[in-house]
Design a protein that fits this description.
The chain is mostly beta strands. Helices cover 0% and strands 57% of the residues. The chain contains no helices and 35 strands. It has a four-stranded mixed beta sheet with strand order 1-35-32-33, with no helix packed on it. Strands 2-29-28-27 form a four-stranded antiparallel beta sheet, with no helix packed on it. The protein is globular, with a radius of gyration of 23 Å. The two termini are 23 Å apart.
Amino acid sequence: MIISNILIFVFLNGEFPISTATERQWHPTVASDGEKYLVIWEDTRKTGDIFNNDIWGQFVSKEGTLIDTNFPICTADSGQWEIDIAFGDSNYLIVWSDHRDKFSNDIYGQLILPDGALIDTLFSICITNYGKSYVSVIWGKNKYLVVWHENYSDSCKIWGQFVLSDGSLENSPFPVASTEWNQYPKVAFDGTNYLVIWNKYWGKSFFDIYGRFVDSAGTTIDSAFLVIQGANGAIHPDIAFDGTNYLIVSDNCGSNDTILGQLVAPDGLFIGSPVLVAVEPESGKVIPMVAWNGTNYLVVWEDFRNGNRDVYGQRISSEGSFVNTNFAVIEHLAPQDPPVIASDGTDFLVVWCDGRGADAFDIYGRIVSGTGVEESEKCKVKSTKLQVCPNPFTSHTAIKLSSHQAIQKKIRVYDLMGRLVEETKEDIIGENLRAGIYFVKIRSYKPLKIIKLR
């Protein structure tokens, strides 16, 4: 009997540093132009003052390699906070809450070319006598929509402003939600209209997630509507559009064990029941983020199931069903702050603030495959040797992993759909596998080099 060959690809820990400068690098966000990613974050390397952040950036390739070095985007002596980024038709727009007016905080922006060159200078998007924060931006058909919440003595309102691709403002700011307490807006675009979502505060620390459609002229469509109502309220929303419907996610306020999701059609109708993205009674899950890669959504969040602050993820189909199960994006003894995510149309880049460095505030990232298995080409240590012999093989193979460092390893075998088919701490695998192509993932608490085997 002839048995077809089994082909094994091996990959190891895949997180990589994006910025490990002195002082703090924190609160990152990320966008893609389809060819690469631009990661930006708040940075105190020049100021040494956590209340006077600058904005720095770093380009990252699709494969997860850094392109050139970190570069400054805004170093105004005022403090830049709560940043966001979107890619338009040809440029990135970065927006933030700017503290140069200590009493009101205003919304500013900066256009950046895909090669990193700044287009002109930073510009104001909204200046009023009221405090503005938690800014979010999305590219529409031919312009950006920037949204934020604005604090008043008796309410907190959601406002929006269109910004053209050259940085000029279209008309004036317009209200999206102008009564009661509304905070933390996010926005997405469906090809015709924008959907703005936010936390609506009902008192006694109780929130729900509401949404409202806005057309390309800045006119609100119908009334605001309830999207997610958790058992104890819902908070920290995010949103992505898949070409047909939106997926809105949030965590369950007061019960940090659940990530909730809801598919919403462009006409505002709900698609199916709410999705329980992650439910683990023994652990907390907070602050989810979501992106679409053309095939599936990926939701990522900060997770406490291991007693540390790790980052986990879950792929979800356009119909709202799970694609495999929750998986670890990064598990480490050092804490990871809540992640952010973007897609290049195929894979995802997940980014977070990481506590393993000397200053405990660095920026790390990981490429997560859109096909169901995470891959990377990072974390190289010359003292590690990896052998798989034979490969390809017909019945079984041996994995030999040697290092001058002490290694505790766990070997997991996945098929091409990303399904876990074998898990062991032993060195012999493949005896019970059918013919095909598989990925072997070797996890350890030491960074090891990655070898692709055929």
